[in-house]
């Protein structure tokens, strides 16, 4: 496995331009992911996490901001460079295992199909498909010669991961790899992802499942097109944006609904106290 | 794992779709191959048919001793062998020659041919021996019977011209009768022509196998020749230019040896050229629409398949495949199948042409594997690849996420522009067709019209289904709702309607054209042949022909016909003398019932007295009250033997009082006819005279004749050329003839045994200044102007065409023989027309009576020949193309069901889960396909039939170069119902397959997902 690739997003904006109107999917994402790190992108539906994943994969061009993956500047990269990046450095696993697989090829052949995209000089150093499959826990010669529809949903999802890892990428992007899986299958997938991470590959996973995020170590919550919060080892943190904005967690938002005047009072111990303004303040609520 | 593995596994995974793709690609290649392969075979068929009737070539000379005609046959053979050794092309195409020498001789008072013909005894049934030895001849059994000859007798034969030459005695080695007088072996020489001609009796040929016997008299005119039959089956199209050159070269080479080459091959090849040209012009007109349809279908096919494979292509791009490799991955399967279809399509096309050649074309014609066939297959492949690239371009260019979303493409402005161009082209072609139906743009009118109707039908279906959908929603009826919803949102439905409409239109056009042409061929055959069987015969004269026919067919199912050609206003007019009493039973006259023909025939033969037939002697009882002193007068009779010129027979010098006058009629053994009586000078001079003669009786061979003296008009004075004498005829108990004047010519009183003018049926305008004239004059069977009255008019006459005159043979012969000998008239053509009830061996019976059959035509045979002519062969290609188009369309219907079948099954399964019953789904599917296939079926049928009716007057249906509008263009009911039935059957089978395919929509399928 190649060394993991770091990710750097600065003020990343993406706008879907539809007929007659635009939708801002990402409105200034600042995010750094270190090489070899595992990150879960969390957030409600429509928050922009899948869009962010597509941007990281070079499938969508950023509307504004800066985005680098390893040495690749995705803002300036041409389509051919993006294609080369996906061939050599970035593995992508789409939501829904079957969408990642050619149904008429066996498990090994699916992996090899993905490896054929890797440029010739690097391809020679790629592991054998069975080794890639073994990394995600798919062992057994007979099973690896089965077509995808003969595999269990969990196996199929792990096969999709293997296909994403076929080119020994430095970054693995996976969209909802555990959705529609039973707990056991989910655990198998998470174990596989952990193995990938341990091998040095940077892993970014989009998920709705907070448990998955916790298993990965770091969570990044995307909310309204921005990084709203981060979690490290089970602890959630608000993230201070470059402009000083902070996304408050939902439970705090219930206490401090939008529009509430808050006094920000730094404390000697290094903490910051948020003090809501009293309602009898003149001219204020 | 290689890219091939991926492709092959993909093909196998999509086995049903792949098979349909292969079928469509095979059909496209087959269609492309059909045009050149079938054209080639059809041209070869026309060539073979044209050459089958040709006579090959004859090399020889005709003349007396100082000419090459007296060369040994071996010498001529050596010269020819040397020439043919140098020209292998010609040598290989000619059969083994038959050496022949013949010369005119006289024996037993009859003219005949003394003939040497190689291996003649193999062609004869001999009673006795073959005349192998010098001085021996074989005599025909018929001639031997007539002259009481037997094998072993000696006969004196006069060699050389009458009055010169010398007699030579031959021993009769045997008596022969030909095994088959019409066999090709005998060539074009009439060896068996016993009977009498204008110059006297003729006997069948005498055969000798000793060349020297024929060259015994140096003054005799010999025809010495080698007759080379043509091996028509060996002459291929590529040989034709070489053959032309060879024939020219051979003629030049033989000329240096004083030998002449006689052949009809150049003329035959020229006629064949015209037909081949017509086929060559027809093929592209048919091939272009079919190929365009193929490419359109392939375009749709690839577009659909590539669209369906969008997610797979997206995967390749997602994994980082470069654009080119992703395109190869996306198109590889289709291109591989298309390439694999080339040899299969090539074989199928050639097989189809081979089957057509075996069943329909001339014997020996087969599908040829030539470069144009490979070129067509190559072009089809290149065009298919081009169509595939064009069709897949949009999909392949889409980004990964676009491919994964699978959002249906919106209808673009390009589609509207294309439709506008098609409509404009169709309008232009129809305008062109209104001006000149044969222009290339006009010939594309039917397919363009079909395309426009297809587009209109597709639009109509969209609007109709949207309206039905709204209605069904309001009423809450599930079956109409499901079918209308599917029809209104189905992306490929409209294109399917267009393809099916065009395909049905092509087939309907072809079938309608075939039906109209088949009827036209039947009509043309009836017009051209005139009766079920027509024998072209060699007869001495009309009377002999009539007598032979009467004897050969006592039942009255055959009719003697004598034809002649005249010209008026520089245009030919065909004269047709028929036996009017047999006309209705024998002739096939299109547009006329038997009763109508009988009515016309009756008008051709108004009643007239029977002719006065004479035996060996004629007697007359004549009273003369007063005779002038000078000049001496005589009474004469004008008689004519059958076919012979009229002659004046003197009955005796006129004497006062009542006397009997007699004359022996030499040469009237066969029965002469009394044409009239003549009063004239015994010794010439121009002294005026006046005499009154009363003819009381006429008798022949002692038997009284029935001259009808008491009937007014039965006898009349023949008008003299320059005024002549004054002649008055009085009817009564005795025929009174008053003659006065000074004309030296005889005053002739004719027995009127014909109408004054000859009633005739006229086709075309009257040959007179006024085309509508009720009477006209035209030389009939003689050179004298013959007055005709128009008894009826017709558009055309059987076997004689649109500018012809038909009249009673008997009356025409009697009228002509008053002044001329018909046996001497070489311009008369003799035929025997036979109805179905005539004896099957009529030809043999006629031959036995001295009427040699030279050729036979039948309506069926003529129709069959027309069916192998260029127009019919072209129309067969139309049918093949129509069939191929329908197969394509059926393939598209199937494919449209296969493409996206998983999503459809998922939808149907979801509907089942939602509570829609399986029966309702099935009914909805049936309803959907009924509209989807029914509308184009009706539109295509209408477009095809309408296109045919518009265009057929500009398309040769029966013969090349026929005038436009020669036939009735009403649609027939032969090929069209069959084609329509087969199409409907094919569509039903397709629908059944689709139902079976979609019948797998069960709820468990939902677990597998919609992808």
Outline the structure in words.
The complex is a heterodimer of chains A (about 280) and B (about 1000). Chain A is of the alpha/beta class. Chain A is about 30% helix and about 30% strand. Chain A has helices at about 50-55, 80-90, 105-115, 120-125, 130-135, 140-145, 155-165, 185-200, 210-215, 250-255, and strands at about 5-20, 20-35, 40, 65-70, 70-75, 90-95, 170-175, 200-205, 220-225, 225-230, 235-240, 260-265, 270-275. In chain A, the strands form 3 sheets. Chain A has a 7-stranded mixed beta sheet, with helices on both faces. In chain A, strand 12 and strand 13 form a beta hairpin. In chain A, helix 3 (about 105-115) packs across helix 5, helix 3 (about 105-115) packs parallel to helix 7 (about 155-165) and helix 7 packs parallel to helix 8. Chain A is globular. Chain A starts with 6 loop residues before the first strand and ends in a 9-residue tail after the last strand. Chain B has about 1000 residues and is an alpha+beta fold. Chain B contains 27 helices and 33 strands. In chain B, the strands form 5 sheets. In chain B, strands 1, 2, 3, 4, 5, 6, 7, 10, 11 and 12 form a 10-stranded mixed beta sheet that branches. In chain B, strand 25 and strand 26 form a beta hairpin. Chain B is elongated and about 135 Å long. The mean pLDDT of chain B is about 85. The interface between A and B is medium-sized, with 33 and 27 residues.
